Amino acid sequence: MKQRILTAIIGLIIFIPIIWYGKLPFVITTYLLASIALFELARMYFVKSTIVYFVLSVVFLWMFMLPKESFMIGYITVTKLSIIVTLLIVLLILTVVTKNQFTFDHAAYMLLTTLYVGIAFYSITSLRFAGLNYFLFVLILIWTTDSAAYFSGRFFGKHKLWPAISPNKTIEGAIGGVIAAIVIGVVFHFVYPFDESYGYVIIFAFIISVVGQMGDLVASAIKRHYDVKDFGKIFPGHGGILDRLDSFSFVLIVLYVIQFTS
């Protein structure tokens, strides 16, 4: 417990100024965290040659995370879709070049993980550039959901939410997390208002809370499938990047789809 608390304090001291300031330090930090997250996933799947496949994928990851939706290379317009399609082509060619030592399954895994990490961390940057209030709104609601779900489940939990994936989570805890997120979302809007109505804030608070809890279950399902306790060990007592950002990253993927800040 002491180690978890110490790690959390050090993390807050490091990351709060970066989040608050934004700009280039935030972008560099996001690229670094995304690269580590992709390595965590690659290492979990590949026993050998992790670095080789990671380096290949991280190049496309960095391109995908560029702040512009498209850019020019000579006379060619490069979009985020074309980056992913190019990675798909390269990975499939790799199955032939390696004579199936790098298989179709490997290619599918690296494509999915690069896309997952890329969209999530590109969205983190986009959310911060949309405004500090948007970023803090999502972050605080996820923390609120996690904390409220834990205490609600501990004191009122009787019915398991999804025991095959996460045996400690309860339906009562999940509901408590959603209610707390909506309340804190309304308070946040009162103190640090958006241009939108309270109805808008309540709807998105509900979505963020529900999707955040689903993101936690998704991460648990992945770890259970590959029989690992944590994605990584970069944060002593807390695990890896994806262990700390499982809910946040999944929420941002959904918010990217529904264009939360548009």
Report on this model:
The protein is mainly alpha-helical and 262 residues long. The chain has two domains: 1-130; 131-227, no CATH class. The chain is built from ten helices and four strands; from the N terminus they run H-H-H-E-E-H-H-H-E-E-H-H-H-H. It has helices spanning 2-21, 23-45, 50-64, 80-97, 104-130, 132-156, 171-191, 198-225, 241-244, 246-258; strands at residues 70-73, 76-79, 160-162, 166-170. A hairpin with a 2-residue loop joins strand 1 and strand 2. It is globular and about 55 Å long. The model has no long low-confidence stretch (mean pLDDT 87).
Q: What is the element string, with H for helices and E for strands? A: HHHEEHHHEEHHHH
Mean of the pLDDT scores? Answer: 87
User: Separation of termini?
Assistant: 41 Å
Task: Identify the overall geometry.
Answer: globular
Q: Strand order, biggest sheet?
A: 1-2
Beta-strand fraction estimate: 5-15%
Number of domains: 2
Share of residues in helices: over 70%
Strand count, sense and barrel status of the largest sheet are: 2 strands, antiparallel
Structural class of the secondary structure composition? Answer: mainly alpha
> Residue ranges: pLDDT <50 for 5 or more in a row?
none
Write down how many β-strands occur, each being a DSSP E stretch of 2 or more residues: 4
Count of helical stretches: 10
Compute the CA-based radius of gyration. 19 Å
